Amino acid sequence: MEDAPFVNVCIQPHGVKEALQRLQTASERAYLCSEGFLESVTQTINIAAEIKLLHAQPHEEGFSDGLNRLLKASESQRCLAFENIQWVGEIEAETQRCTQTTLIAENALSQLETDSSLTIAHQEREEYHESFYNLFRLLQDAIITINQECLITQFNPGAEVIFGYSANEVLGQHLDILLPLGSGESHRRHIHDFQEDLQDARYMGTRQTISGKRKDNTLFAAEPSICRYCENGQFVFMVVLRDVSERKAREAELEFQAHYDHLCSLPNRAYFNTRLECVQKRALQRGAPLAVIFIDLDGFKFVNDTLGHKAGDELIIAIAKRLEKCVRSGDMVARMSGDEFTVLLEDISGLEDAIQVANRILDGVRKPVILEGSEIFVSASLGIAYSPDGVETPEYLLRHADTAMYHAKAQGKGSYALFEPSMERLFQERVDIENGLRVALGRGEFRIHYQPLIEVKTGQFAGVEALLRWERPNQSQMLPSQFIPIAEETGLIVPIGYWALEESCRQMEQWRRERPLLNLCTLSVNMSVKQLQRVDIAERVADILKKTGLPACNLQIELTESVLITNLQETIATMKRLKALGVKLALDDFGTGYSSIGILHHIPLDMVKIDRSLISQIEEHHRMLLVVKAIVALCSALSLKVTAEGVETQEQLAIIERLKCDVAQGYLFAKPLTGKEIAEFMDSSAPASIRFLNSASNDMPKVLPRVA
Ligand code: C2E
Ligand code: MG
Ligand code: MG
Asked: Is the peptide bond before 58 cis (omega within 30 degrees of 0)?
């Protein structure tokens, strides 16, 4: 062998066999060098011995010669030699045994150490290159390098997908192409700052979110990670960038859900409360005034119940927009729930400012809203809690504003009220009613009173209307107007309404059995829209009739006009199901606000009850008399009977008689009476003010109004 043997080394235990084989191949210039001197001496010696055996004599010379040659070899040769190295080992023990070449060996050893670590670094770099290349190719994140002039020098496939450009389109282009207009300058400055600081390669990016610009000019949220290193004497900036727009959108959505109302996009209750706390603290520190306005829509429940939830939602959105326009940009408008809104007024000079905003809100809400093609009018009741020096706590401010709002409602709606301590009582009363209603049925606190219905033409007793009363322990009797709205809001009207129906049917049937003359009399019972909306309403009514034994033809159900505007087809179907039972249907309170005369001929009705507010004016207002006359004429044309509600005077009775109203009801005949009283009334032992006369046919008692 011409050059063999050259270097003799100990071999790392792994791959010993292969290494030996390679050493045997004389033509191959393979050298093994150290990789870390980690192997144990024993191993080293053993392996060295094996190598010796394998190699031709004289081993030592060959070994030192090899080392010698290696050391003497020019830089390029050594490089070449080391590039071929695949296995590394430890040569220390072996070289020390080569007495002639100790010095050389030591030199060689140190040289080899350096070179081998270089080799390894080189090797590692190669591996890294490959790994990086794979990363560059496969990573879904964008990897972009730019030079000192901010020109793009590398653009990986991930960047192509994210930005929508092919690499060819952007290589050599200015970084600005990937950035939203106007933001390039700050990036350039950033890069420039780092160029000033000519230190080594370093990580320089924060994980701040920036905006990237796609080829189609759309922007997206991106999280960059930037580093700088030197290549061929030039700084290279590498940006690894991730499109986080989806994540950001999700985060924003969660953030939005936590702080804003999903329907109208106003801040929600939680956000309002947080803000109120901050604002109140600030106001307290500065001794500055602040105000909270609580807003509740007056007609919202009606719209929701009648036009349906979709229209209700539209109304909320429209009102929310208007409210925002009524305040300054820094004031917060929030939706607390349903139709309740709040306004937080900071930096006001006094109460007058809050009142001014309240008036703007009242005016703003009053304007008609177009819903499903028709103009809807609603109003709002507002409560103002004003703190001149920020002393009141957020909790109190909100509660006081709410209390004042209830006060405004009680005053007649469509107005504002300023909180006063005495109002707390009113608020407490409402809370008491709500709590009381929840247990009233179970405790048997409801009663039914009955008001007679009189046939106008004959003056005969035609039946009764059942009217609910609530007798609370140790309290005065409560009228429906005080508790029915709350019962409707809470849904408690449904069980209460069924109870009233069953109780009055049972009572009526008992009277009928006891008094055959009442055979043709009608029991009229009010039914809430909440009950009518129940899918099983007809079945429930049928059950009650069956249970109580009252014939269906003796029952008349009174529905208010509000039931007619919502889901008309569905309502008509329900009404038909009720009528199919043999029950009569009356439209109550006709003429109050939402009347639609045109709708009368669509619905299966037997009776229209003209509201007291119309009847009370027929004496004095000729126009109202004409209205009532027209209603009666229309009903007559549609074969509907007419009841005049709230007849209080002889004159009114005379007029409705002339107008040919069928039935009259009112204090002129009797106020609503207890069961016992109405039984006496029926038995001709009515109050002295009412006279019963037997009709000629002697079939029904005749009632004449009291003489004033
Ligand atoms: P409504 O059905 O229109 O009943 C007539 C109301 O007018 C009764 O008031 C009655 O006392 C009153 N009224 C009758 N004649 C006169 C009169 O000549 N002058 C005056 N000033 N008032 C008269 P009430 O009993 O307070 O009932 C108010 C409303 O509460 C009822 O109006 C009805 O809508 C509702 N309501 C009563 N009971 C029930 C019930 O069991 N269920 C439901 N859902 N609502 C009921
Ligand atoms: Mg009624
Ligand atoms: Mg009525």
From this structure: yes
Tell which one of 467, 502, 534, 614 to mutate to probe ligand 1, the residue whose CB is within 8 A of the most ligand atoms: 467
The pTM of this model reads 0.55
Report which of 674, 640, 466 is spatially closest to residue 558, judged by C-alpha positions. Answer: 466
Distance of CA 40 to the CA centre of its chain: 69
Q: What is the mean pLDDT of each run of 10 residues along the chain (708 residues)?
A: 36 40 39 32 32 35 48 37 33 38 42 53 69 82 88 93 94 91 71 62 68 93 84 82 89 88 94 96 94 93 80 93 93 94 95 96 92 84 95 94 90 90 83 92 96 94 96 89 90 96 98 89 95 93 98 96 75 94 95 70 92 94 92 94 97 96 96 94 53 36 44
Shared-domain flag, residues 185 and 130: no
Into how many domains does the chain fold? 4
Q: The domain containing residue 271 runs over which residues?
A: 259-420
Nearest Cα residue to 316 out of 260, 374, 263: 263
Domain assignment present for residue 455? The answer is: yes
Pairing of strands 461-470, 522-527: parallel
Q: How many of the other CB atoms lie within 10 Å of CB of 289?
A: 20
Which H, E and C letters describe 375-389, residue by residue? EECCCEEEEEEEECC
Residues 276, 147 share a domain: no
**3-state SS class at 327:** coil
Q: Same structural domain for residues 113 and 180?
A: no
Question: Do both 121 and 205 map to the same domain?
Answer: no
Q: Which of 135, 41, 34 is nearest to 87 (CA)?
A: 34
Q: Report the C-alpha gap between 579 and 569 in whole angstroms.
A: 15
Residue of the CA atom closest to atom 3 of ligand 1: 589
Burial class of residue 187 (count of CB atoms within 10 Å of its CB; 0-12, 13-18, 19+):
buried
Name residue, tokens 């033809």: 553
Give every CB contact of residue 378 below 8 A, 6+ residues apart in sequence.
297, 298, 299, 300, 303, 315, 319, 365, 366, 369
Contacts of 423 (CB under 8 A, 6+ apart): 400, 403, 404, 406, 407, 417
Ligand 3 mean position, distance from CA 260 (Å): 41
Q: Residue 177: which CATH number?
A: 3.30.450.20
Whether residue 150 sits in one domain with residue 92: no
- Identify whether residues 149 and 276 lie together within a single domain: no
> Same domain, yes or no, for 412 and 293?
yes
Contact 427, 406 (CB under 8 A): yes
What residues are in contact with ligand 1 under a 6 Å CB criterion? 451, 467-468, 479-481, 484, 493, 497, 500, 526-528, 558, 588-589, 612, 645-646, 648, 665-667, 672
Same domain as 393, residue 466:
no
| Domain presence at residue 329 | yes
- Among residues 191, 136, 189, 193, the alpha carbon closest in space to that of 167 is found at 136
Q: Which atom of ligand 1 is nearest to the CA of 500?
A: 41
